[in-house]
Amino acid sequence: MWFLALKQLRSRLSQTVLTFIGITLGAAAYITFAGMMGGYQQYMIDKLINNDAHVRISPRDEFITKETFAGIFFPESDIKWINPPSGRIEYTHLSSVPTWFKKLDRDPRVVAYSPQIIRDVIYTSKKFSIPGRFIGMDPNRETRVTTIARYVTAGNFSDVSKGISLIIVGDELMKKLGARVNDTIDIVTATGTAAPVKIVGTIRTGMRMIDERYGYSSLASVQSITGSSGEITDIAIRLKDVNMARAVATELAGDSTDRVESWDQANESILFVFRTQNIVRNSTTLTIILVVAFGIYNVLNMSVNHRKKEIAILRSMGYGQQDIILLFLYQGLILGFLGSLFGMLLGWAGCSYIESIPIAVSGSRRGWVSASHMLISWDVMIYVNAFVLVTLSSVVASFIPARSAGRLSPLEIIRGAG
Amino acid sequence: MADVRCASIIKNFENPRVEVLKSISFDIGRGDFVAVTGKSGSGKSTLLYILSGLDTPTAGRVIIDGKNIFDLPEAEMNHFRNTRMGFVFQFHYLLPELTSLDNVLMPARKLKREKEVRERALELLRRFDLEHCVGKHPAQMSGGEQQRVAVARSLIMGPDILFADEPTGNLDSVNGERIMNMLREINDKSGTTVILVTHEPDYAAIAGRQIHLTDGRIDRDKKKTVKGY
Ligand SMILES: Nc1ncnc2c1ncn2[C@@H]1O[C@H](COP(=O)(O)OP(=O)(O)O)[C@@H](O)[C@H]1O
Ligand SMILES: [Mg+2]
Asked: Which of A233, A366, B100, B223 lies in the 20 to 30 Å Cα band around A382?
């Protein structure tokens, strides 16, 4: 039946071509759309995963409410608060760092971990003061946990451990301070003490939060400047399998008084935005598929109606219902197959074009990300999905007219005409 | 060659109820040339469709070569139709997207035998003066040429029985006669059983036997004692 299917497609060439174009555009639109969204999300997720730890251990915040005191002073039923207690207990550092180290050293799922001390400070230069984070860490360990060292744009990440009070800052932060590499700036701590540090390098990650606010220095420097000698506030952990992050975090949290969060728990709000985007994408995909399917359905339905006599004559020659069904199913399959094949090419071309569009970023403050061009995902699965979805929906859509063609009674048609 | 026997065939249509065939019985021998005649509406086409298994009777049996064709499973019936029956209708029903050669080869495609019968198809087309039409599409041919292609198609698998429902009905007398000559030749040379529905007495006279229908009953069944045209 392939032979006749091809001949029939060719005999109604303009319709075939129109349907084919519809399918091609549908598949291409899907690919471009998914490529653009996927590119942005992949980029973001990649940064979220790799710039920071897979799992992070940090001190817990605790808020005081009336439940905090329930049953402590009096039996609960006796108490009516006139002014319920409120407040916050802050744990400024991790409870038992050596215990964590021992645990992590033994855990086979952990590739590396890096103890950090993170303090909120105010960076000040002659004229400007900018609030930010002051992070102390061991560059060797940090490099094994996050990709931060890759984004160093001036100096060397390990330079900070070459002396005391050396810092690598986000390049935007440095710009805002009006400073240059090798300049000395001041760090003002929460208690109001100021200490000079020397800029030995800059980083640019593309994540505004880091580029505009972060400064990295050695553990000892941060501890001494902020007057918290020996304290560790965070442990950043890298896992063999990032997909295990949530499970590992939950397990490590166990009965500890510290907070253990996986990267996806920490970035819940961004991931929620992605989920919303994905819903939009899926409904768009569904619409595209419906349009493709309806196009095929329509064309084949018309084709079946035009070819009733031919169906009857084929049946009188001994072709069975099966054969007639296949005749139209093949036409749908050919259209869907070729359409999605060309759609893949066109979608690929579209993605390449979009990727080449430069975005002017310098000075722009919008968004989480700064990139020099549009971000496109080249994930093979997008292409596989487009191909499978479009071809499959073409076949499904052609099945309905094909089956009705198979069910036509050849006799009714012959009788009707004769 | 095949023999066809039909026994007490009744065909009714419902809503409104019409009794089209009222107990038809006759035997057709191998290699016979039978013309079914009668006025329009007398039930000729209905009878032919039942004999060829395209339609089912309300009651009665059609036995071809000892087998009741209505007992055959679908696939076997299709195979039987493909390899042993030929059909020619009043309207030629060629497939418009195929050349006349491809049209003739279409029944052979069912069994993927189109290559092996290609020579035979060309020979049939030559025999019916259609050499100039081999690569033409139906739209490029005259009505008479199209009907000749349809006859060639019905013969490609070398059928034992040829069913023809007013094959000349749409043609002028010159082309009509040509088709009749072809049917006669097929019956003569290959011994194919031919069952022809026609209401033209001249053409019916060519057949060795005439079965005349009036209101769904056989009212005359005339055999020539000697086959002669
Ligand atoms: N599907 C049908 N439903 C009802 N009546 C039908 C149907 N097909 C044929 N008939 C009737 O059966 C009778 C015989 O039809 P047909 O066999 O085509 O006659 P013929 O071929 O001799 O002209 C006609 O009266 C026709 O109206
Ligand atoms: Mg008739």
From this structure: A366
